[in-house]
Amino acid sequence: MKIKKLFLALAAATLIINLPLVAADPFGPRCGPFGTPLPDEISSPPRLAQCGALEKKGHEANVISRASRVVSALEKDYEDNVSSLIRSRWIFRKSANVAEVLGNGFLYIGAGSSTVAGGVAMVGSQSIANILLFSSTVCFAAHIIFIGFAKCCAREEREREKQLDALAKRIGFSVIPLEPIITDDALGSNDVKTKADV
Questions:
Q1: 126-170 and 47-123 helices, crossing angle to 10°
Q2: Beta-carbon neighbour count of residue 89 at 10 Å?
Q3: What are phi and psi of 35, to 5 degrees?
Q4: Number of CB atoms found within 10 A of residue 81's CB
Q5: pTM for this model (two decimals)
Q6: Which of 51, 76, 60, 83 is closest to 163 using CA atoms?
Q7: 3-class SS at 79?
Q8: Residue 111: which residues within 8 A CB-CB, separation 6 or more?
Q9: Minimal CA–CA distance to 148: which of 182, 125, 121, 171?
């Protein structure tokens, strides 16, 4: 018990003697117990330089990490834009083709209905002829609507193709043009093919 009290008293005395030195140098005492000088490696360790280097290294790693996240986000956005343009270009091209087929189909149905209506009117059934004439008028209107829709879809497809071509040129690629040509059979054989922007 006496040894324990003696050890505690010795430790307290050492702390009291070195307390001003510790308060003057927060990075550690420059003297050993009872004022004995310490070697230079122990008395002045390069803690500040180490802390500064670690802090700078951590900052650089943080900047590099942030930059890599930005680059990966931009790459993902670029890929999303390209895939969206490819998908919408395909949808508009197919819609233009289907609308062209429907529009020209309604043109021929309307022409056939009006011809049949003329024949029925000559036979004598005017009510059936009127129904056929009305249906041929509806078919002609449907022809105009579907051909107009096909032209709009072809124009939108061409806009997507231009944007896709601009994105492809940035990375050294080229896009094969697949612009649909809308054929309006109502214009006659002299000017059958119509550009999408007409």
A1: 160
A2: 21
A3: 85, 10
A4: 13
A5: 0.58
A6: 83
A7: helix
A8: 136
A9: 182
